[in-house]
Amino acid sequence: MSIRVLVVDDQAIVRAGFTAIIGGEPDMEVVGQAADGAEALRAVPECRPDVVLMDIRMPGVDGLAASRELAAAGSPARVLVLTTFHRDEYVFGALRAGASGFLLKDCQPQELVDAVRTVADGEALLAPAVTRRLIDAFATGAINPPSGEDDRLEPLTQRERDVLLRIAKGLSNTEIGAALGIGTATVKTHVNSLLGKLGLRDRVQATIFAYDTGLVRPGEAPPPKG
Fold first, then answer.
1. Would residue 223 count as lying in a domain?
2. Phi-psi region of 171 (alpha: psi -120 to 50; beta: other; left: phi over 0)
3. 122 C-beta neighbours (distance < 10 Å), count
4. Which domain holds residue 75?
5. What pLDDT is attached to residue 222?
6. C-alpha torsion angle, residues 131, 132, 136, 138 (rounded to 10)
7. Are residues 95 and 160 in the same domain?
8. Whole-angstrom Cα distance, residue 155 to residue 157?
9. How far apart are CA 166 and CA 207, in angstroms?
10. Does 88 map to a domain?
11. pLDDT single digits (tens) 160-215
12. Where does a domain end: 95, 125, 155?
């Protein structure tokens, strides 16, 4: 089955370019276009996209607001944000609004289609430059995590906290299992459980959450094994 994509951008020429790139892939089809967030919100239930390619800065309802509304409505469509803006608040805002991926518009066509496939497959994706800025922002204090225990961590068991901590450190399920002395299948169970309890969609949002709550702090040594 083809990956169904909705292209959302306030510039017609940009929409046309993205549509041409995506439409040229044998496993993808553009099922609709929208010029702003309001149009996107109306189009999603009609077009039933798997992935919404979403610009951030648009007149009227912007991409962040539209992403929040889609997430709040429980839409199964996954949002991949593309923007020319490099400012950190757009990255954090997009991820917290429910976006599953973030790319800059100067990416190569192959990077774009690979990103669509990744997000459609249920994974999260950040452009390498975005990931570096995200880490740097926490490391330099541009984003200040809380100093004490955050109430949002209360639903998690200690083992789920252990797993979340290692997700935020960038470990794979196999590496987490080795560190904690448990099987990969058990790690997957813990990951799914903690994502469900916290209302998070993927590992990127889990990483943001871990830093936001102070579970992980910049400059910490890697968590000990066991």
1. no
2. beta
3. 10
4. 3-125
5. 45
6. 20
7. no
8. 7
9. 9
10. yes
11. 999 998 888 778 888 899 999 999 999 999 999 999 999 887 777 787 788 778 88
12. 125
